[in-house]
């Protein structure tokens, strides 16, 4: 096997480059200075070491590659792996037949804009009447913001507050595991502890800490339930003077999970599984007796919450942990990205679909908050017709990408003009990597061919500031698309998500359809949009999908506006976003698995069967007459109606 650069023929390398996704091909062709200006193109790259972290799809054994090349490999479930490899060895890697495809670990962002009764669960709802402007205000523990709304209970008690005397047939999530893969969780919060003070978290993997040299992922430190209980028995503030003697007696300060600085993960965990002990049982979550598995996702860049590689390893860890212990598993993912064709064909989406076949689990993912962000545009272009996909760029943008997806049989060419109109470039529609300089901006783009894993053709265009400029030109840019010949004519374009850019950046002619974020685009996961449970209306910010005679996304909708849940420090806070909708469904999935698997009513109640039952039980919202639809799927979460009769 060829493994030295001197042995690689240019023709072989050009052919093998079809194993690279478009953004990775473009990034490898750029200088380091250019690459580091854009969060997508620099994702996975460490300039200090010139090492790349990449997502690998492979076949067979990787032993030969590991023996011949300098790289580290973290095998994941299925034929997927996360690899770390020097930049100069990527060409040699591509020549191995075991290597099928490589992708960048693209950036992911939290799906947050800043009730329980509405979802047919008994007990105190999380929803309150606090406005969006107050969405991050803290609520003191045990201080409700509104009176409880009583609802009817099903024949089996569902979602009742946790208590040591809860009946064995109550659906509280007992015997199930919920994985919160997010910004971390305040493990000291009373709502994640039992009546004896012990932790309900069975495992806590903090990816942000130094590697403990014990876990297989080469990343972070994993805390067991026993380890967390030891920490909970230690003084709350080990640096205070009154604890100095205890600290001296116990030796050096023990490792502990780092703080959940954003509070995002703590809030989500409370919706899924908080037991309400900090509020006397009043503010409890959907599955208050479920056990928890927490992964605090690593943040590798200042402007990015995490990336695909870190999330894929987190899913792998959660599925293996639950399967080894025979626990039904519900995974919550409240992160998303706009990068991709939004059709489920990326490696991240394919990997999540693959994970459903290991153990007994369900994967629940928020659809994001891009509904009215103007980050998606769609058009149909006929033969000899030209359309303008104009987009505004807010002042201060340091870079921006435009991603275009089209049917490969359509023959297009393009023109891009500056906001001033003083400069314009012509872009041929032929596959290749192109470089242009215009008016103090650097234009770098790639037009790709279809691949074995993606039937569409992509143009990825990135605007970078010239070396002497800190930002790109603001104003309205014009991307003209001319069709020399159209067969299908459909074009979909995306800009980065709202969390990655200024809120004023967006398409002039925007479309709200297909605004759900990756990886909620995966086929067999449960994709959840958001609605306002106080008015029974769809949340305008919520990401939308599609609906046709064959399939639909999202699968259902859940409360996403003014949700009261746990906050770091022991109290509660109000937040809004589809990040808050997904954990309602993740908790509901745990209840169904308790009913079926734990209580023995149906040992096969997991995976797509859970999705089917939740769709069947979903209730309609007043504004929609046709189901499924691209906004709320089959309707609003209703656990009572979803239980098998």
Would you kindly provide a written description of the structure presented here, covering whatever features stand out?
The protein is about 20% helix and about 25% strand. Strand 3 and strand 4 form a beta hairpin. It is globular. By secondary structure, the chain is α+β, with helices and mostly antiparallel strands. It has 13 helices and 34 strands. It has three domains: about 5-105, Alpha-Beta Plaits; about 120-130 and about 150-160 and about 170-250 and about 260-370 and about 520-620 and about 630-640, Rossmann fold, CATH 3.40.50; about 375-505, Jelly Rolls. The strands form seven sheets. Strands 8, 9, 10, 11, 13, 15, 28, 29 and 32 form a nine-stranded mixed beta sheet that branches. It has a six-stranded antiparallel beta sheet with strand order 16-26-19-24-23-22, with helices on one face. Strands 17, 18, 20, 21, 25 and 27 form a six-stranded antiparallel beta sheet that branches. The longest helix has 21 residues, at about 580-600.
* Helical segment count: 13
> Between the first and last Cα atoms, what is the distance in angstroms?
60 Å
**Beta content:** 25-35%
- Gross CATH architecture of the largest domain: 3-Layer(aba) Sandwich
Low-confidence stretches are: 1-11, 122-158, 161-165, 234-252
Q: What is the C-alpha radius of gyration, as a whole number of Å?
A: 25 Å
Q: Strand count, sense and closure of the main sheet? A: 9 strands, mixed
Overall structural class, as computed from helix and strand content, comes to alpha+beta
Number of strands: 34
- The CATH homologous superfamily of the largest domain is termed Peptidase S8/S53 domain
CATH topology of the largest domain: Rossmann fold
How many separate structural domains? 3
The CATH class of the largest domain, by name, is Alpha Beta
């Amino acid at each position: 096997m060829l493994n030295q650069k001197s042995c690689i023929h240019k023709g072989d390398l050009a052919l093998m480059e079809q194993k690279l996704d478009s953004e990775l091909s473009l990034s490898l062709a750029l200088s380091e200075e250019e690459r580091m200006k854009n969060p997508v193109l620099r994702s996975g790259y460490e300039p200090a070491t010139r090492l790349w972290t990449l997502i690998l799809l492979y076949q067979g054994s990787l032993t030969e590659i590991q023996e011949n090349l300098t790289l580290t490999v973290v095998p994941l479930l299925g034929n997927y792996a996360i690899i770390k490899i020097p930049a100069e060895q990527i060409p040699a890697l591509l020549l191995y037949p075991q290597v099928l495809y490589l992708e960048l670990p693209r950036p992911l962002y939290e799906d947050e804009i800043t009730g329980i009764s509405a979802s047919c669960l008994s007990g105190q709802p999380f929803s309150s009447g606090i406005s969006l402007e107050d969405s991050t205000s803290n609520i003191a523990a045990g201080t409700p913001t509104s009176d409880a709304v009583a609802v009817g209970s099903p024949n089996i008690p569902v979602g009742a507050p946790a208590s040591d005397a809860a009946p064995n047939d109550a659906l509280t999530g007992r015997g199930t595991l919920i994985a919160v893969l997010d910004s971390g969780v305040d493990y000291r919060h009373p709502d994640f502890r039992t009546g004896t003070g012990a932790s309900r978290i069975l495992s806590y993997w903090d990816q942000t800490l130094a590697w403990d040299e014990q876990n297989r992922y080469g990343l972070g430190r994993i805390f067991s339930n026993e380890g967390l209980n030891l920490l909970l028995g230690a003084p709350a503030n080990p640096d205070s003077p009154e604890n100095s003697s205890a600290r001296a007696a116990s030796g050096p300060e023990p490792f502990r999970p780092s703080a959940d600085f954003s509070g995002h993960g703590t809030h989500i965990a409370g919706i899924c599984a908080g037991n309400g002990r900090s509020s006397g049982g009043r503010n409890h979550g959907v599955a208050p007796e479920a056990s928890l598995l927490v992964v605090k996702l690593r943040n590798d860049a200042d402007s990015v919450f995490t990336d695909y590689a870190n999330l894929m390893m987190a899913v792998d860890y959660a599925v293996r942990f639950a399967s080894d212990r025979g626990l039904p598993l519900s995974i919550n993912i409240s992160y998303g990205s706009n990068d991709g064709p939004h059709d489920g064909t990326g490696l991240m989406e394919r990997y999540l679909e693959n994970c459903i076949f290991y153990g007994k689990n369900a994967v629940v993912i928020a659809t994001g908050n891009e509904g009215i962000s103007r980050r998606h545009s769609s058009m149909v272009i006929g033969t000899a017709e030209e359309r303008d996909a104009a987009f505004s760029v807010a002042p201060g943008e340091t870079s921006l990408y435009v991603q275009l997806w089209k049917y490969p049989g359509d023959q297009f060419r393009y023109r891009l003009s500056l906001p001033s109109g003083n400069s314009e470039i012509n872009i041929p529609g032929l596959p290749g990597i192109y470089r242009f300089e215009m008016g103090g901006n650097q234009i770098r783009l790639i037009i790709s061919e279809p691949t074995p894993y993606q039937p569409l053709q992509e143009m990825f265009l990135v605007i970078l500031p010239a070396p002497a400029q800190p930002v790109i030109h603001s104003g309205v840019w014009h991307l003209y698309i001319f069709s020399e010949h159209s067969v299908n004519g459909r074009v979909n374009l995306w800009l980065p998500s709202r969390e990655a850019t200024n809120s004023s950046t967006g398409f002039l002619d925007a479309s709200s359809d297909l605004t759900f974020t990756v990886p909620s685009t995966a086929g067999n996961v449960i994709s959840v949009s958001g609605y306002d449970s106080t008015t029974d209306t769809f949340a305008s910010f919520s990401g939308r999908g599609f609906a046709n005679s064959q399939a639909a996304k999202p699968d259902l909708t859940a409360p996403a506006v003014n949700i009261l849940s746990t906050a770091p420090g022991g109290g509660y806070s109000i937040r809004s976003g589809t990040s808050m909708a997904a954990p309602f469904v993740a908790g509901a999935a745990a209840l169904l698995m308790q009913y079926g698997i734990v209580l023995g009513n149906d040992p096969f109640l997991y995976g797509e069967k859970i999705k089917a039952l939740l769709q069947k039980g979903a209730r309609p919202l007043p504004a929609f007459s046709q189901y499924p639809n691209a906004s709320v799927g089959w309707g609003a979460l209703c656990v009572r109606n979803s239980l098998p009769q």
